Amino acid sequence: MDFKSAVRTCLSKYATFSGRAARSEYWYFVLFIFLCQIALGILDNIIFGTGHMTRGPGMWAYEDRGGPLGGIFSLAMLLPMLAAAVRRLHDIDKSGWWLLAALIPLFGWLVLLYFYVQPSQPGANRFGGGSGGAGGAGGNPWGESSVPKVPRG
Fold first, then answer.
1. Distance CA 103, CA 115 (A)
2. Distance of CA 93 to CAs 20, 27, 134, 136, 145, Å?
3. Is there a contact between 92 and 127 (Cβ–Cβ < 8 Å)?
4. CA–CA separation, 68 vs 115, rounded Å?
5. pTM of the shown model
6. Could you tell me which residues are beta bridge partners of residue 62?
């Protein structure tokens, strides 16, 4: 999945917490939000003067108080980002409730990061058909495994 189709898919599934999202779809959407936040931070600073440079002993620091454009964008992207994260967890056959792991200090975000970088589970799982990622409905790029599959009951 390319950048444009990933962003379009995530925005069209604004608050859809069911189904699956391929690894590329999720990470391209994260990149989109990151780039938009940078651009809106610059615009907020130009239009509203929300940030300024300060000089300390031997260093420069930039202080940003946030601005209305970045804040509105963050609120608008909250549901699609949560939905994409839940669908990404579904793609590796994990429940969306794993997002609550982010509330565990110093550890929870590492668990979620590990889950987010995992390849898609090949074929269908309890959350739906293949995601269309490299290991999803398109098949495993490394070929079939010689390890027999264990039926889930």
1. 15
2. 9, 18, 15, 12, 18
3. no
4. 33
5. 0.79
6. 53
